[in-house]
Amino acid sequence: MSDSGNTLVGMTNTQEPQNTNTSGVAGTVQTVAGAATGLKLYDTASHTVSSFVPLKPGQVGIYVCGATVQSSPHIGHIRAAVAFDVVRRWFQRLGYKVTFVRNVTDIDDKILDKAAAAGQQWWERAYIYEREFTEAYDALGVEPPTYEPRATGHMIDMIDLIRKIIDNGHGYVVTDENGNPTGNVYFDVASWPHYGELTHQKQTAVSDDASKITDAMGPSVDNAGDDKYNPIDPADMSPDKHDPRDFALWKAPKDSDPLDARWNTPFGTGRPGWHIECSAMSHRYLKDMFDIHGGGLDLRFPHHENEMAQTRAAGYDSAARWMHSAWVTAKGEKMSKSLGNTIYLSDSEEELRTKVMSMYTDPNHIRIEDPGQVEGNTVFTYLDALVQPDSFEKYLPEYKNLDELKSHYRRGGLGDVKVKKFLLKVLNEFLVPIRERRAYYEEHPEVVVDVLRKGTEKANAEAEQTLDKMKKAMQIDYFNQWAEDYNLDKVDM
User: Fold this and answer.
1) What is the band of 80 on the pLDDT scale with cuts at 50, 70, 90?
2) Domain 349-432: which CATH class?
3) Cα 335 from Cα 120, distance rounded (Å)
4) Between residues 329 and 108, the one the model is more confident about
5) What pTM did the predictor assign?
6) Which CATH class is domain 14-334?
7) Strand 171-175 to 181-187 pairing
8) Residue 144, CB half-sphere, CA atoms under 13 Å: how many?
9) Environment class of residue 387 by beta-carbon count within 10 Å: exposed (0-12), middle (13-18) or buried (19+)?
């Protein structure tokens, strides 16, 4: 436990690391293949391709930003998962022992608001959609992470990290007229001269040439905090901030927030800001083995820029390399829930048909005989991700595989409608079991409640163990110490 644990007595919402899937040979470091010496990777921070050198020989630590479980996953989410699953598998193929961490954001404004609108408990909604994400990963064969921590299980870690940031002079607590903490804590951007290094922004918010090169990979989000891809956290609009660039580390609850969505801290009652959970959990699970931080392209700014700043400001090492996957686009836009252009795993067959048949393909592929491009073609992007070895045998037997289909499309003579109908069949095969599972949970809420109850009981037991360790470390476990000294039964406090 940290040396600041004495401020957290009574807070039992913590989660000890539990290894669910350790890649590589347990207890040993595999022999790394000679090919690994030639491995080169792109780094978002440096805008360069460079040789990969692990922080620990034979081992690789990877942290990837996971889902905010507010609603059903869409294909854009799954693309990022598949992209970093490929990276992970390649490291394993080269002989590295990989520790792969992917978080779950199970509390934020959207989860709270959507749960309230649907008449759900916020934790109930988070669990239902977390299960949908898991089922989608499983359906595509994405390997389970070594650790999959939830934000709500790491409140102590987050509060401890915020304390370090404040103690180091890079954060501040907002107080009321009586000097009492309000629950709002902000990162002091002006105090951190390195802010902007990830996305190559200057403190003046003027981008350099390197940033423009990166932005060519996708729509720019580096020079504007309030955009359609990364809307500003309402807490960041507070007039109490010292600087407009400052961002929330911890924030006071809204009046509409449920009482069980608030945590008592030395800074006042509230809940985490958007960025702090990833800093806390990456450090907890990877510490000195933080080789790669991954995520979608849209997370470069502000999320990852802020994350890098607060992690280093707390005195911890940030990722040695940052990597970002590109987007699935629809009609020239990033696939996004907020833009309403997503394909949801819960879509009905009719909803799916409407979306697939309206997909953009190659704008120059006007007539069937016209040659077409598959690169950047949304339909083929989906096929790349979802086609199975037997898909053509079942739905399009005149082609042996996807390469043959692409070749025909490129030379002309293959219409978009035919390809879209094939994609529709592939998608429905993928989605049917997920739809059925979701319908089952909706019809049997008692199953959800039972799973949550068992999970809560397990979490409480682990939290009690952690609290006991804290009390002993702080030498405040008076009653149980006396019990040990005098051979008495321990006291349940």
Assistant:
1) confident
2) mainly alpha
3) 26
4) 108
5) 0.64
6) alpha beta
7) antiparallel
8) 12
9) buried
